[in-house]
UniProtKB/TrEMBL annotation:
Source organism (scientific name): Mycolicibacterium gilvum (strain PYR-GCK)
Keyword entries, A-Z: Hydrolase
InterPro entries: AB_hydrolase_fold (IPR029058), CocE/Ser_esterase (IPR005674), Galactose-bd-like_sf (IPR008979), Xaa-Pro-like_dom (IPR000383), Xaa-Pro_dipept_C (IPR013736), Xaa-Pro_dipeptidyl-ppase/CocE (IPR050585)
Pfam families hit by this protein: Peptidase_S15 (PF02129), PepX_C (PF08530)
Keyword Hydrolase: yes
Official protein name in the record: Peptidase S15
GO molecular function: dipeptidyl-peptidase activity
Organism placement in taxonomy: Bacteria, Bacillati, Actinomycetota, Actinomycetes, Mycobacteriales
Length: 544
């Protein structure tokens, strides 16, 4: 594309998405060599704006290459608005030296890149970081020991702890991290047609591998010679294992003082971490913004892109360029059927609505007399994943009517609501529960049932290695959801959600090498001890 056509395209996109227009042209200096402390060199592209008064400098570090779509979203867009942008491929990817070991080297490599940046003749004196997902993790890595020139960060769906998503619920996030390993391990295949065909079949191949035993051998057959890290993840099931230390960056949350903008979606894999990031940073008095929209992880570069770009420009203008703040409130959330709310904090104060599962499958405010409901979880035919917080395109809000009808799922459905019911916050389900085997998991879900009987997921929770007796308290995903008048609230309880979470084989054997499985008979004791608590009532006022 010619430079003139590219300029016109950028202006057209700005009009379509209601974004500030480009202010300058830019030139790209490609494949700059950035030295690390161990003499490995990482490759970066420098987007230099044609302006005598640059807006500032941005650093972007990631493993997915420096081409489309990342170059457009995180480099050329900002360069055309006056920012110098350094877009670097992390160690072992797309021309950068060394070996790619996911997440392991980002603290040191990020610090060395910042040291190189301050010595460049065009450097503006301060810089900010931007990026999503892994490109967000690299920002947390830099924040563990923030360089003095770092002035702001815009972190989109970015985890600080990647031991958590794998084992945070006590169960391996199999679908996401096997699928991610398959994608990243083969992403530099020069045969683009073969790569595209493989990606089209990826979910089917991952699901097939996830059902075979032993899992380590099945994953190796899927991954081939690539992604050697995956089996090492399987080999360390304990989150307290020192193996995970370099992948857990809590220091960034404890040391960061620069203004941080956090963007995520209600159906993003990392939304729980992002909410915790906000609470920890804001609680220490760090200038922090939190935006949560009706998005999945994959939506952030499509449906969410206009919001992400617009809010990032406002944040950078305030904290790099020194312009007056544009943000109306620290927290901005999307409440379904109501739109955007500007809030002073998260979570907002909400009334509590308590509902009890009833004998016969009902859901009502009053606790029933003592009664039991049972189901059997069979690892040989595991309860399937339907929607939810996934990296893959099959996640998000989905029709889960068929899931609710399965024999291995307990379903409790309320009566039709007389009026709209907003739920804003973190639902909690207490389950009085016993299981015939000590090796068992619990998956719970809140869904919405429409007037035609169709059900759609709203919020999930998961507890692995649940106790074989007693009350299990499950915190579900944070939500901002309006159940419309005429709809019904539904609670689902099951023994797994495969392949989102690694199925519990019921034997206690090692996850990677186990070859046998045993069924688990679950009993939920209905009554006062089993109840759903919803933060529900009139929506919090918006500071519009």
């Amino acid at each position: 594309m010619s430079s003139e056509l590219a300029r016109r395209a950028r202006r057209a996109l700005s009009r379509v998405f209601d974004l500030p227009p480009p202010v300058c042209d830019f030139v790209v200096h490609r494949e700059l060599r950035v030295p690390m402390r161990d003499r490995v060199e990482l490759v970066a592209d420098h987007y230099a704006p044609h302006t005598a008064s640059p807006a500032g400098t941005l650093l972007v570090r990631g493993p997915y290459g420096r081409g489309l779509p990342f170059a457009t979203m995180f480099a050329s867009f900002y360069a055309a608005r006056g920012y110098h942008v350094v877009f670097q491929s992390v160690r072992g990817t797309f021309g950068s030296g060394g070996e790619f070991d996911p997440f392991v080297n980002e603290v040191d490599d990020g610090a060395d890149t910042a040291a190189w940046l301050r010595d460049q003749p065009w450097f503006t004196g301060t810089f900010a970081t931007i990026g999503l997902s892994y490109l967000g993790f690299t920002q947390w890595a830099l924040l563990t020991d923030p360089p003095p020139e770092l002035a702001a960060a815009v972190i989109t769906v970015g985890p600080d702890d990647v031991s958590g998503p794998r084992w945070g619920a006590g169960s391996f996030g199999l679908n996401d991290f096997l699928g991610w390993s398959d994608l990243v391990g083969r992403q530099e295949d020069p045969n683009r047609v073969r790569t595209l065909l493989r990606q089209a079949r990826a979910q089917r191949r991952v699901t097939s591998a996830s059902l075979r035993l032993p899992l380590a051998a099945a994953s190796r057959e899927l991954l081939g010679d690539g992604a050697l890290w995956f089996e090492s993840w399987l080999d360390h099931p304990d989150t307290d294992d020192p193996f995970w230390t370099r992948l857990r960056l809590r220091d960034g949350l404890e040391r960061a003082e620069v203004p941080v903008l956090l963007l995520t979606g209600w159906q993003d894999l990392f939304v729980d971490q992002t909410v915790e990031h906000y609470r920890m940073l804001a609680g220490r008095g760090v200038p922090t913004g939190l935006t949560i929209g009706p998005w999945t992880h994959g939506d952030m570069m499509t449906k969410a892109a206009p919001t992400m770009l617009r809010e990032s420009l406002d944040w950078l203008a305030t904290h790099l360029k020194g312009e007056p703040p544009q943000r109306r409130s620290p927290v901005r959330i999307h409440l379904s059927r109501r739109g955007w709310l500007n809030l002073p904090d998260w979570p907002p104060a909400m009334p509590s609505l308590v509902l009890h599962p009833q004998p016969g499958g009902g859901l009502a405010p009053g606790a029933p007399g003592a009664a039991d409901a049972t189901f059997v979880y069979n690892p040989g035919d595991p309860t399937p994943t339907v929607g939810g917080r996934l990296l893959s395109p099959v996640g998000g809000y989905r029709d889960d009517t068929a899931l609710a009808r399965r024999a291995d799922v307990l379903t409790f459905t309320g009566t039709a609501l007389a009026s709209d019911l907003p739920v804003v916050g973190v639902p909690v389900l207490d389950v009085a529960h016993t299981c015939a085997t000590p090796h068992n998991d619990l998956f719970v879900r809140i869904s919405q049932v429409d007037a035609h009987g169709r059900s759609r997921n709203v919020s999930d929770g998961y507890v692995a290695s649940a106790p074989d007796s007693g009350t299990v308290t499950v915190e579900l995903d944070p939500v901002a959801w309006t159940f419309p008048a005429g709809s019904r609230i539904r609670v689902l309880i099951a023994g797994g959600s495969h392949p989102r979470f690694l199925r519990n084989l019921g034997t206690g054997e090692h996850a990677g090498t186990a070859t046998d499985f045993a069924t688990a008979r679950h009993t939920v004791h209905l009554g006062e001890g089993t109840r759903l608590t919803l933060p529900a009532g009139p929506p919090p006022p918006s500071a519009d």
